[in-house]
Amino acid sequence: QVQLVESGGALVQPGDSLRLSCVASGRTRALRAMGWFRQAPGKERVFVAAVDWSGSSTSYADSVKDRFTISRDNVRDTVYLQMNMLTPEDTAVYYCAADSQPLRVALTTTPSSYDSWGQGTQVTVSS
């Protein structure tokens, strides 16, 4: 498995930007697709964005498309989630996750396809 540590969560105002980071360690970490998920109070954990092992392919939930950008730096073993134009609906705990299958061809949005998870970082958007 891969060990993941997220950071960057904060309390921000609507319209603000925020960048989350996720540092990975462990075997085959550079060969795994990485995803960001979020969970709001009382709701299930949902897919936000994913990036393949090389960083060349990405996928986004419709709710964040054109506002969020996922990227990775395999030299620094870090995955980023740049979040722009934040709204109160983006308030949630954000989790970084590593795909269970190294070098998977197609990005997956299903939480059960990821077998390593970080502890989460809180993002609160409020005026």
Summed up:
Helix content is 0%, strand content 46%. It has strands at 3-7, 11-12, 18-25, 34-39, 46-51, 58-60, 68-73, 78-83, 92-99, 114-117, 121-125. It starts with a strand and ends with a strand.
The amount of helix comes to under 10%
> How far from one another are the termini?
39 Å
- Rounded Rg: 13 Å
Portion of residues in beta strands equals over 45%
Q: Helical segment tally?
A: 0
- Poorly predicted parts: none
Query: Structural class, from helix and strand content?
Result: mainly beta
Q: State the order of secondary-structure elements, H for helix, E for strand.
A: EEEEEEEEEEE
Topology:
Blueprint: E1 3-7, E2 11-12, E3 18-25, E4 34-39, E5 46-51, E6 58-60, E7 68-73, E8 78-83, E9 92-99, E10 114-117, E11 121-125
Parallel strand pairs: 2-11
Antiparallel strand pairs: 1-3, 3-8, 4-5, 4-9, 5-6, 7-8, 9-10, 9-11
Descriptive keywords:
11 strands; mainly beta; seven-stranded mixed beta sheet; 0% helix; globular; single chain; 127 residues; four-stranded antiparallel beta sheet; 46% strand
